[in-house]
Write a structure and sequence with these properties.
Alpha-Beta Plaits; Fumarate Reductase Iron-sulfur Protein, Chain B, domain 2; FAD/NAD(P)-binding domain; 5-stranded parallel sheet; 16% strand
Length: 581
């Protein structure tokens, strides 16, 4: 018996070196499988780096295990709020760049990540789920936050949950910054915004409204009373067009117009409105003007392709009767008796690309036209109001924060539109990073960096494994209903059944989702399937012959082959192995 065992060992050793197995005629490769978790591209597309895959697969695995839906949604809600305290808000206003990166889009349609985030946010509000604290010892240094927009709220949240005493100073009579005063209620209902802000305040955050730092209280005074100050003042100051006649009555900046409407003040826009610009503020101003009863035309100097506004919002504006006039730029506001009555415009054409990558608009010599208007809204850009905070401004630029969101002066930090105009989700990420930096500074810690992992592209996956299923679409009001009920929210939240079905569409790119494919293809018993769903699979490498089938057929790209001698990954042809008999 001892001699036979010795011969078997020698035969196995020989086959590991590429020698024949003898009986089967198959050569054994030295290559072996290993688990390699990868970063899903949706997470890279999210400015906050949200664990989208983890959130969706939590629902997915819970459904497959027959768990109670409320329990699953609660768990997923707390995964979302690890980074984002405003999921119901972001689920309504974020242009969801994550979905553009979703690998599922190469099979049928991207996962409805934004709609699922909104569903979980609304679930948290409905169930009155509090935000969780993670108190740490010694976190007693007081911190001031200037501005209650998304950046300030995120900074306050991530500090308060650690136990720091935080005070927010807000210029306006209500919190929310541009979320409240720059976004119409039909896109972001105020009860949703109020509920999510209140959860942050419930962590012990102090809110001082109608208090402008720099005017009502000096920055020096705030700094004396706090160990760190975060500046998130936003960009509430709109820019005019820089053309003759713009000082006339009924010429607004986009931010001033939306601010006034969102405060609940009456605004008479007349019969015809011209909105200049192609961004979100321009589209919001146009759609609000339609709800005020006006005929509206958006005038944009480039084409539809170059419009930076969220595509769904542009489509919504068109459905509501907003006219889009492209390749046109304002030359002069026409006035009568001190009031705007129209606009003289220059015909444009597209030239070479500029620094943004978009083709630069250039005038067509001698080609002009005129448009009638009772109100003209300039929504071309906006900037922060630095009154009382001029010393923080870096020359003609705005606040100059480094990669940790720290300003040059010790103890000062910044984020959001005061640093650079961007998405609410970018502002939330910057507020969180600033909070992490402040905490690390106080505690003498290194700022943690997420581990670098390879990205799970479709080259790693077997898309044919997944069944084609179209995404869930939310119900929406008709254009007629929208205009008849101005502040009514246009899009409804997913139903519970839709949310579960949508989570089941997640392909779990780069991470095991317990499909069992590797186990079913392994004919050598080298893969051990767990007895309980959700537990990890295991390799018995002593039984492995290096056939590659597990890696070839792993649909999500979690298994790779490698050379044990060098540790290097060995390429495999995805989906290349024939199915076992």
């Amino acid at each position: 018996m001892a001699i036979k065992r010795s011969k078997k060992k020698k035969k196995k050793l020989g086959t590991l070196r590429g020698q024949s197995t003898g009986g089967s005629g198959m050569e054994i490769s030295p290559n072996r499988p290993r688990w390699v978790e990868k970063t899903p591209p949706c997470q890279l597309g999210c400015p906050q780096g949200t664990d989208i895959r983890g959130i969706l697969t939590t629902i997915q695995k819970g459904e497959k295990a027959g768990r109670d839906h409320e329990e699953i949604f609660r768990e997923a809600f707390y995964l979302v709020t690890e980074k984002n305290p405003l999921p119901a808000v972001c689920g309504r206003v974020c242009p969801h760049p994550c979905e553009a990166e979703c690998n599922r889009g190469r099979l049928d349609q991207p996962a409805a990540i934004n709609s699922l985030e909104r569903f979980l946010g609304d679930f948290g509000i409905e169930k009155k789920l509090p935000l969780r604290k993670t108190p740490e010892e010694g976190c007693t240094e007081p911190v001031a936050v200037i501005g209650s927009g998304p950046a300030g709220l995120a900074c306050a949240y991530h500090l308060a949950r650690r136990g720091y005493p935080v005070t927010i100073f807000e210029t306006f009579p209500k919190p929310g910054g541009m979320l409240r005063y720059g976004i119409p209620a039909y896109r972001l209902p105020r009860d949703v915004l109020d509920a999510e802000i209140q959860r942050i305040l419930d962590l012990g955050v102090t809110l001082r409204l109608s208090t402008s730092v720099g005017r009502d209280v000096s920055l020096d005074e705030v700094r004396r009373e706090h160990r760190a100050v975060f500046v998130g003042i936003g960009a509430h100051k709109g820019r005019l067009l820089g053309v003759p006649g713009e000082e006339a009555e009924r010429v607004w900046t986009g931010t001033a117009f939306l601010n006034r409407v969102n405060r609940g003040e009456a605004v008479d826009v007349g019969r015809k409105v011209l909105v200049v610009g192609g961004g979100d503020t321009a589209v919001d101003a146009a759609r609000v003007s339609r709800r005020l009863g006006a005929e509206v035309t958006i005038v944009y100097r480039r084409t539809r392709t170059e419009m930076p506004a969220i595509e769904e919002e542009v489509v919504g504006a068109e459905e509501e009767g907003v006219e889009l006039r492209f390749l046109a730029a304002p030359l002069e506001i026409l006035t009568e008796g001190g009031r705007a009555v129209g606009m003289r415009c220059q015909v444009m054409e597209l030239g070479e690309p500029d620094e943004s990558g978009r083709r630069r608009p250039v005038p067509v010599p001698g080609e002009e036209f005129r448009l009638e208007a009772d109100t003209i809204i300039a929504a071309i850009s906006q900037e922060p109001d630095f009154e009382g905070l001029e010393n923080l401004r870096e020359g003609p630029d705005w606040l100059k924060a480094d990669e940790t969101m720290a300003l040059p002066e010790e103890g000062l930090y910044a984020g959001g539109d005061a640093v650079r105009l961007g998405l609410a989700t970018i502002a939330l990420a910057q507020g969180r990073l600033a909070a992490d930096t402040i905490h690390a500074k106080f505690r003498g810690l290194e700022i943690p960096k997420p581990p670098e992992k390879p990205v799970a592209t479709t080259d790693h996956m077997v898309l044919s494994f997944y069944e084609k299923v179209l995404r869930a679409e939310c119900e929406a009001l008709s254009p007629e209903e929208r205009l008849a009920h101005g502040d009514a929210e246009i899009v409804k939240t997913l139903t519970e059944e839709q949310a579960v079905a949508e989570a089941l569409r997640c392909m779990s790119c780069g991470s095991c989702f317990d499909c069992g494919t590797c186990w079913s293809y392994c004919q050598d018993g080298a893969i051990v399937k767990p007895l309980r769903p959700g537990e990890p699979y295991k390799f018995k490498l002593e039984l492995c012959k290096g056939c590659n089938k597990c890696a070839e057929q792993c649909p999500c790209g979690y298994i790779e082959m490698y050379d044990p001698a060098t540790g290097e990954t060995v390429p495999v042809v995805k989906g290349g192995a024939p199915a076992p008999a």
